[in-house]
């Protein structure tokens, strides 16, 4: 299982709404994540908008591709895009760039 960590930035004026949206992630979206190989997935948010994502997956590229094929993900990404700063692709799920792991205590 590969551990993946990524960073994004949420607009400071949208932090409260971003938190609220993630207290009620659509059940269909959660199921799609599970079905496409996203395990132990967490998001952490600082008060200045730094978003840290963590997940475990067998194949990150395949997990991303699986979500890209899901209509529920396209709807979610469309609704969430305006929450983020500096998205190159216009979508948070395609702007995720995994960080390089330099240490792990097992």
Quote the CATH topology. Alpha-Beta Plaits
Determine the N-to-C terminus distance: 13 Å
Query: Which structural category do the helix and sheet elements fall into?
Result: alpha+beta
Outline type: globular
> What can be said about the biggest beta sheet?
3 strands, antiparallel
Q: Return the domain count.
A: 1
Average per-residue pLDDT, rounded, comes to 94
Low-confidence stretches: none
Please state how the strands of the largest beta sheet are arranged side by side.
1-3-2
Number of helices: 5
CATH uppermost class = Alpha Beta
Number of strands: 3
SSE string, helix = H, strand = E?
EHHEEHHH
What is the radius of gyration computed over CA atoms, rounded to a whole number of angstroms?
14 Å
Tell me what portion of residues adopts beta-strand conformation. 15-25%
Q: Mind telling me which CATH architecture this is?
A: 2-Layer Sandwich
Assign a percent range to the helix content.
Answer: 25-40%
Please explain how this structure is put together.
The protein has a 3-stranded antiparallel sheet, with no helix packed on it. It is α+β, with helices and mostly antiparallel strands and 106 residues long. It has helices at 15-23, 27-35, 60-68, 71-80, 92-95; strands spanning 2-9, 39-45, 50-57. A hairpin with a 4-residue loop joins strand 2 (39-45) and strand 3 (50-57). The model has no long low-confidence stretch (mean pLDDT 94). One of its GO terms (biological process) is rhamnose catabolic process.
């Amino acid at each position: 299982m590969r551990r993946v960590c990524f960073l994004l930035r949420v607009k400071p004026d949208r932090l409260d709404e971003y938190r609220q949206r993630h207290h009620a992630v659509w059940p269909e979206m959660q199921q799609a994540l599970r079905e496409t190989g996203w395990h132990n997935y967490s998001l952490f948010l600082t008060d200045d908008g730094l978003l840290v994502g963590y997940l475990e997956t067998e194949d990150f590229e395949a997990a991303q591709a699986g979500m890209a094929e899901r209509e529920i993900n396209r709807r979610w990404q469309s609704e969430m895009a305006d929450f983020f700063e500096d998205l190159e692709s216009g979508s948070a799920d395609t702007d995720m760039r995994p960080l390089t792991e330099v240490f792990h205590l097992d």
